[in-house]
Amino acid sequence: MRILLVDDEEEFVATLAERLSLRDIEADWVTSAREAEKIADTRHYDLVVLDVKMPHMGGRQLKQLLEKKMPGIKTIYLTGHGSEEDYKAGSAEAEYYLMKPININDLIDKINDALAT
């Protein structure tokens, strides 16, 4: 299983990757959509965890680009903006969505759920 974490908050995404690693889940991380596009040219991922709102390109748009490079990639969205109800109303993938601050166990549950489908 290969996971990519994308969030413009460097300390957050680095800490998230470290916390996953402590639970034997290895994840690469980047801090921009541009970096995610570049790394996706050289590596394949089974799942990507995306911040919904980032400078230059948000998570939803980035997901569309990543799907072209990796058809069938699973996605979990993270956001600190809005509410869960707001997001669910605009997304068919609401089951793969977490509000920040996240609970690491909730994220691991979502990762397992997404990869099981």
Describe the fold and architecture.
With 117 residues, the protein is an alpha/beta fold. The chain has a single domain, classed as Rossmann fold (3-Layer(aba) Sandwich). Helices cover 44% and strands 19% of the residues. The protein is built from 5 helices and 5 strands. A 5-stranded parallel beta sheet has the order 2-1-3-4-5, sandwiched between helices. α1 (10-21) links the parallel β1 and β2 (27-30). α2 (33-42) runs parallel beside α3 (59-69). It is globular and about 30 Å long.
List strands and helices in order, with pairings.
Elements: E1 3-6, H1 10-21, E2 27-30, H2 33-42, E3 47-51, H3 59-69, E4 74-79, H4 84-89, E5 97-99, H5 104-116
Parallel strand pairs: 1-2, 1-3, 3-4, 4-5
Helix pairs in contact: 2-3
Summarize the structure.
With 117 residues, this protein is α/β, with parallel strands linked by helices. It is built from five helices and five strands. Helix 2 (33-42) packs parallel to helix 3 (59-69).
